[in-house]
Predict the structure of Class I SAM-dependent methyltransferase.
Amino acid sequence: MSSPRHCPVCDAPPQQARIFLDEHVDPARLTGLSFASRKTPEFMNHHLVQCQRCDLVYADTPPGQDELARAYHASEFDSAVEADDAARAYMQAIQPVLAQLSAQLPGQLPPDKAALEIGAGTGVFLEHLVEAGFNRVCGVEPSPAAIAAAPVARQAWLREAIFRAEDFEPASFDLVCCFMTMEHVRDPGEVARAVQQLLRPGGAFVVVVHDWRAPVNRLLGKRSPIIDIEHMQLFSPASIERLFTEAGLVQVRSHSFANRYALRYWARLLPLPGGLRTAFIRALDALGLGPLKLRFNVGNRLCVGWRPLPGKP
Ligand SMILES: [Zn+2]
């Protein structure tokens, strides 16, 4: 086993972390869907520790970047409807950010209004951004299955890759988004610093993350869907805001965030044995309740930060 890593947000040494949850991995149960987003939870996890300095919960001996890249490359894709619901909720949540971006622009229109999404899936959110007036959008997505499932028109926006700063022009985006993906990357600090460099001055970085301190996640404990083999770290209000400020972003704010999904999807997240959960979902569908859309606060948190404008703090 490799030696434990430093905290990937504040760089505190392993001695400043205390155990959060013991490792629980059953290799026989690892499937192609283990690394897909919005899949049915399996309640497996890496050894997790809690940083006493910044409050991050993280896997202190995670798999290497190569191993992660392979897992995502092989992962399947099965969540088009949920991805669509999520994109609508994200779009609604970032309206104040879009308004502030527009207010900042000088009198004449800029040559382009550009956005990047890290972990773009089928590019459904990028389509909303185009509708909102962005004329250059790009999505990075490591899963070829997700890109293959995208409509042809969106595939041109998508790049099959793990996010790397050097693939993009510095200071070339007004908005960078990353939804439910910061938990998956091996080095979230590196991603945040790279995003800061890719933003134009006055540009915004927006993420949605799971909040391990949210009441629903504290209540469910190790049966929470956030306790999962795919998660290299889990944020809290303090640790996500620290990630942003350490990366040089300013006016950093975070708040809890409600998702709107079909009841059938919510039922998949219930901490029930597989057979019981399947029976429950069948019953919902038989009653015609499965597709019913409901909004719940399930312990997600939206965080926004800005690249400073020259001459402003
Ligand atoms: Zn830390």
User: Anything to note?
Assistant: Residues 14-306 form a domain with the Rossmann fold fold (CATH 3.40.50.150).
